Each structure stands twice: as structure tokens, then as C-alpha cells.
């Protein structure tokens, strides 16, 4: 469900992408979907993409659960405008786990401060019923 943000065009850009296997490409596409959902404030997509045990560790060291993070996106505490994913490196483990590393540059307004931040990010993902779910995001 989107909450009045339907006119937003999510801008997610990937640069310096090397040749990826089919599984690696699936992981990258799922992460892009996550970035779009953050920008568009799409509660349903965020809820579906993020594992129920998801945690996010911010640059400040603050850790949030799935719904703490989604709530701050939905209430406007966290506002994302553009995401640039640079040099994604994806490691598939036993076909059902993935480690996604990339420099992710976000144009955002976070806790009242507008800026552009580059996060040296690592996502841990798990494949369940042919879909990738993000379990953890460390910055």
C-alpha cells in the first residue's frame, strides 16, 4: 500500500556493474526493488522484501528492527530520493544465501538533515520459495 506518494519516480542507478550470474542478477534486482520501495515509501513492498527478523545498522551504530525502520520511512523521519549502487559484489552461498556488498550513495533527508551519503554496505540475503529476502543491512 502506498500512502499518497504515487507521483514519486524512484531513481535507482547501478554503476560499475561487472558481469553477473543469473542468481547474482536476481539478488541485485531484489536490492534495487528494496531501494525503490524506500524512495516510494511503499509499505507493502518493504514489508514483503524485508525478512521478519531484518535488522538495519545505521552509520551512527543505531540498530533498528524491520518495523522500526519501516515506520520511520512511512512517518517521514527517513526520506530517500535517489539511490546509486556502485560496484555491486555478490557472493551466493549454497544457492540460498547471498552476501551483497556495494557502495550505496543515498540522496536523503534523515532525522531532519538533508544530504548525500555513501554507505559501504553489506546486505545478508536469504532465498525462500524462489524469492530473495533481505535479512540484515550493515553500514
Helix-strand pattern: EHHEEHEEEE
Helices, by number, come to 3
**Largest sheet, if any?**
7 strands, mixed
Summarize the amount of helix as a percent range.
25-40%
What distance separates the N and C termini? 28 Å
What is the C-alpha radius of gyration, as a whole number of Å? Answer: 14 Å
Strand content: over 45%
Please state the structural category.
alpha/beta
Mean pLDDT: 91
Give the low-pLDDT segments. Answer: 1-7
Strand order of the largest sheet: 1-4-5-6-7-2-3
* Number of distinct beta strands: 7
Shape: globular
In short:
The chain is of the alpha/beta class and 139 residues long.
Give your account of this protein's structure.
By secondary structure, this protein is α/β, with parallel strands linked by helices. It is 25% helix and 50% strand. It contains three helices and seven strands. A seven-stranded mixed β-sheet has the order 1-4-5-6-7-2-3. Strand 2 and strand 3 form a beta hairpin. The two termini are 28 Å apart.
Layout: helices, strands, pairs:
Blueprint: E1 11-15, H1 22-40, H2 43-49, E2 50-57, E3 63-65, H3 66-74, E4 78-93, E5 97-110, E6 113-128, E7 131-138
Parallel strand pairs: 1-4, 2-7
Antiparallel strand pairs: 2-3, 4-5, 5-6, 6-7
Helix pairs in contact: 1-2
Keywords:
disordered N terminus, single chain, alpha/beta, 139 residues
